[in-house]
């Protein structure tokens, strides 16, 4: 249905500014959103290529170079000169073998780890190994010396050094004092007596649970206490060709 008289639409009319009043500010509509920047036609749409990591290659080359240097030093710097000092009973060849100085061994890699045989040998009391550039090694040893013979319960005779270490293969020891005994092992006490009375030409020392008997070139002496024996040891010279029994209170001569 059509309205024969169309109505006028209502429009909002702002009042005019009166005299002395500022005009009303104009109504501002919001600005449209900014368009995104256009892509640079000079850059491709793909990501830039990755840089190749060359570290594994350098590590491999460095390892190969190091191995080559070590191999070259092994063959270029062998031990050519070995000097052995201080040996008496051991031959220079035996000392070199104990020191691990085999022919052709590389001088830069020789050290204490190679010379452990010197420490394990009963004949070596101490040793010093010195390297001298470019191809020399000096081995200075101090050997143990046979001091006495010890006859065990099984009758087997073993050569002993002064510190009690057994010295296998010792020769020319028939004139050393012979240590014997029974009961608890008193080899250290017997060695002590043989060492303390060494100037009296001790020929044998025998121990028992009750005491120790020492036979010298002039007499025989017994004592139940080591300190007392040392205190009256001068009686060996005063009473030659006698049997001496030393007690804490004095000496009995028979």
From TrEMBL:
Cell compartments where the protein resides: Membrane
Keywords: Cell cycle, Cell division, Cell membrane, Membrane, Transmembrane, Transmembrane helix
Membrane-traversing stretches: 56-77
A cellular component annotation (GO) from this entry: membrane
InterPro entries according to UniProt: FtsQ, POTRA, POTRA_FtsQ_type
Compositionally biased region (Pro residues): 20-42
Keyword Transmembrane listed: yes
Region feature (Disordered): 1-50
Chain ranges of the POTRA domain: 77-144
Swiss-Prot/TrEMBL GO biological process terms: cell septum assembly
Pfam families on file: POTRA_1
Keyword Cell cycle carried by entry: yes
Predominant place of localization: membrane
Record protein name field: Cell division protein FtsQ
């Amino acid at each position: 249905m059509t309205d024969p008289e169309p109505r006028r639409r209502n429009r909002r009319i702002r009042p005019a500014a009166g005299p002395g009043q500022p005009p009303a500010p104009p109504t501002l509509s919001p600005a449209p959103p900014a368009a995104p920047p256009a892509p640079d036609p000079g850059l491709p749409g793909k990501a830039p290529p990755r840089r190749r990591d060359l570290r594994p290659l350098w590590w491999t080359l460095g390892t190969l170079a190091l191995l080559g240097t070590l191999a070259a030093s092994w063959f270029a710097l062998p031990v050519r000169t070995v000097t052995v000092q201080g040996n008496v009973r051991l031959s220079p060849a035996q000392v070199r073998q104990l020191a691990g100085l085999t022919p052709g061994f590389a001088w830069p890699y020789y050290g204490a780890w190679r010379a452990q045989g010197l420490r394990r040998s009963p004949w070596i009391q101490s040793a010093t190994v010195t390297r001298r550039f470019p191809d020399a090694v000096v081995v200075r040893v101090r050997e143990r010396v046979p001091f006495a013979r010890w006859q065990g319960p099984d009758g087997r005779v073993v050569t002993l050094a002064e510190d009690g270490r057994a010295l296998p293969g010792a020769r020319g020891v028939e004139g050393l004092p012979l240590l014997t005994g029974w009961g608890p092992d008193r080899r250290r006490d017997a060695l002590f007596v043989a060492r303390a009375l060494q100037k009296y030409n001790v020929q044998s020392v025998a121990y028992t649970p009750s005491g120790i008997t020492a036979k010298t070139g002039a007499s025989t002496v017994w004592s139940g206490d080591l300190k007392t024996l040392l205190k009256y040891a001068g009686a060996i010279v005063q009473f030659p060709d006698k049997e001496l029994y030393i007690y804490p209170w004095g000496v009995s001569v028979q």
